[in-house]
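Q: Here's a chain of 144 amino acids. Please give me its 3D structure as tokens.
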Amino acid sequence: MEKKMLKFLKLNPDAKIPTRAHKGDAGMDVYSIEDLLIRRRGDIKTGLGLACEFPSNHVLLVFNKSGRATKEKLDKGAEVIDSSYRGEIHVHLFNHSTGDLIIKKGEKIAQLILMPIWDGNPVEVEELSETKRGAGGFGSTGVK
């Protein structure tokens, strides 16, 4: 079976190619190329010093690092990188905490996941098929 190719080009000598902490991990960690200060309840957009190329039937998504999100309240914003994009990858970061957050050069700040995409076309219909769940949404299954 042919492996999908995910290519990275370093645009900055301090950039690090994304890494996986463990075999089988979905996410590839990405790293800050500079020291960052995100003021309390503030946000920044920071470049990773990388551009990438991957198959046209895929999308590269940016996700939080779970530890940083839960412990430091570090959250990422925009997350879609289209296969046709060849510019520098940026990450939009939010500090939801009540104190300033310092990120040192070389620290992990987010993770990337390469996903296949549906390439069909949306179709308008008059009705949808019924399911057991129906329109039950937020909280409809309870907490137990």
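Q: Can you summarize the key feature?
A: DSSP finds one helix and eleven strands in the chain.
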